Structure formats: structure tokens, C-alpha cells
Amino acid sequence: METDEQAPDDSAEKVDVETSLPPPPVEPPARESSWRDAAWLPMTLRIVFGLVVLIVTWCFYVSRMPVVFDVNERAAQRALERGHIESEDQPLPSGYTTVSTVIELTNWMLKKPGGFLHNDRLAPNAYLIDNMPNFELGAVNELRDTVEAFRMIFSRPRAQSVELPYLINAHRYYSFQPDRWMVPPSEAQYRKGRELVELYLEAIVEGREGSGLFVSRQDALERFLKTRADRLGSFSVQLRAASPEGYAFNPKVETQNLATTPDPISSEYQGDILRDVTPWHKRDDVFYEVRGSVYVMYHVLLALRTDFEGELNDKRAMGQMNRIISELHAASQPLICPVVLNGSEYGFFHNHSVTAAMHIAKAHVAVNDLRVLLRGGSDG
Questions:
Q1: Are the C-beta atoms of 342 and 242 separated by less than 8 Å?
Q2: Residue 130 has what pLDDT?
Q3: Residue 177's closest CA among 169, 189, 167?
Q4: Does the global pTM surpass 0.85?
Q5: Cα–Cα distance between 154 and 215 in angstroms, integer?
């Protein structure tokens, strides 16, 4: 018996299976790659950020200002190391402390972190920092003048004494321009000058006549203070000019005889008053250059106080010398603010230049008073 059953249609099942499958994914159209999609960008940013942090850290490291040191302790330590004395209780020769202090300050300038920076032209800090380079400029100028005093004043016991050849050359080396970075570089010249000053130190220890004895008379100190008084007066004017109001002066009154001119504050001269104002972007340069000179001068006067202790006590001038040193110490205190502020004198912001000028002006007056005492004046 035949049945009407039909065989299953395999083709229908295949159609149903094929129609039930999901459609194949459609690929998005290709688009041009952008710099935002670059895989190297995050790595580059990390490298750049690391370099910036490294350079900034280096700039802060080499810009650290020096601290005040004990000139007597450093001089005694140098004398012990070189065999000039056998014990710390043994007194040093006259002038040893002052010459040793100049050597110590020169060593700091050449061996501090980063070395001598004022003549750098290729290092990154040459374009990012200027505080320490200007500080070095002031220190070099003061060291040069002190070495000149060794040559012209302290090493010549008589007016007709012959200058010492190695001090003549030392003064020339210290007078070398501080911004020279090609052959010969500035620091190489200062290093040669320091070596010649060390010869002067050895001559002081030997004490032979004509070998460079250090003159510790009151007239020699008075002559040296005359040069420092002139320098301090210049510093005070430079810092005062860094104020926004500037340093006011009247050229007619300055150049004419006051006895034959009208009242300087009359209306005839009020319109002729000029103001010497330092440009705003140069005020911090002047500030740190003066601080460099004051830092060296402070330590040199500390050493001279030791070498001229007997003469100062005889003239009852030790208190006046201490007054000078105290004002210079106040002028060279560390700056807590990260930048030099030069606001108006009675304004909202502080004026660091005027504050330093105030202490330097007091030191200038004290130097002149000390010179009077050394010439035979009295405290009264």
C-alpha cells in the first residue's frame, strides 16, 4: 500500500538556516590617521616633561646662594692643613686671615655647584637663570678690588716700596673679563690668580723682608676703607634707582656752585629734576650683583677686623667696625621671596632694593666714621 508521505525537503531547511544567520559585519570606511592617534605622543610628552623637571631642578640647584662662614675658623683650618701652624691655639701671622679669606671666596666661586656660570653660553641655565651669574659678577669685582689692595696697599710697607710681581699678575688675572667662555675661559684666569695669591700667603708665613709682608698699620686700613666707601655709595644709588620712583637728582644743582645758585627746590629747578630709573627687567640683575659684592666685602672686613684688631682697639674703633659688619650682614641676608619685589616704598608690595640700599647707606656712613677715628678722631 502506497502512502502519500513525502520526503523532507532538504533545500528548504538550508534556506531557513541561511536566513537565520546574522548578516556579516560591515567594515567602516577607512579614514586618514590623525596626530591624536599616534602611539608615540604619550611617550614624547613624558620625555618632554621629564626634561623640563630635570632642567628646572638643575637651575634651582646651581642657583643656591652661599652661606656666611667663619673666616677665622677657615683660616686656622687652612694653616693646619698646610703646616703653617702646629695647633689651633697658635696665632696666625698678620694678614693671614684676610688673604686666606680671598682664597676661600675664590674657591667657592670656582668649585660651587655648576662651577662659574657667568660665562656659560651653551648650557640651558644660561637662558633660564640670571641671579647666580649676576651674583658672581659682583663677587668677581669685589675680589678684584681686594687683590688690587694687596698689590697697592697692604704689601707695600713704604710709599716707595716696589710692587710684588706675583701680585701684579694676580691683579691682572682677577681683572679678566668675566663673560669670556672661549679660550682662555674666565674661570681659568681666576684660577691662575688664586694660585698667585697663594704665593702671597706663603710669603706672609715666611716673613722675609721684601717677600710680601702684610702691612697692618692704621693708615693702610684707612686707605682701603676709602675705596670701599666709594663702592658702597655707588651701590646705594644703584639700588635706589631700582625703585619705581627712581633716584631723583637735579643736574644743574649738581654741576653748579650751590653758593651762587637759587634755592634748589624753587620752581625754576623743579622742572629740571631727572629720575634715574633702572628698567624693570634689569632690577633683579642689579640687586644680585650688589649682593655678590656685599657678600665678599662682608667676609673681607671680618678678616680685616681680626688682622687689625690691635690698631682698632688702640683707636677705640672696634665698635665702629662691628657696626659696618652688622649692616653688611643685614644687607646680605637670604631672600625668602622667590622673586625680587620692587614695589613702591609705602605700597602694598615690598621693595627689596630699597631695603638693601638702606642697610648699605648705613654701612657707608659707618665706614666714613671709622676713617675719621683711624685718622685720630674721637667717638664724640
A1: yes
A2: 85
A3: 189
A4: no
A5: 5
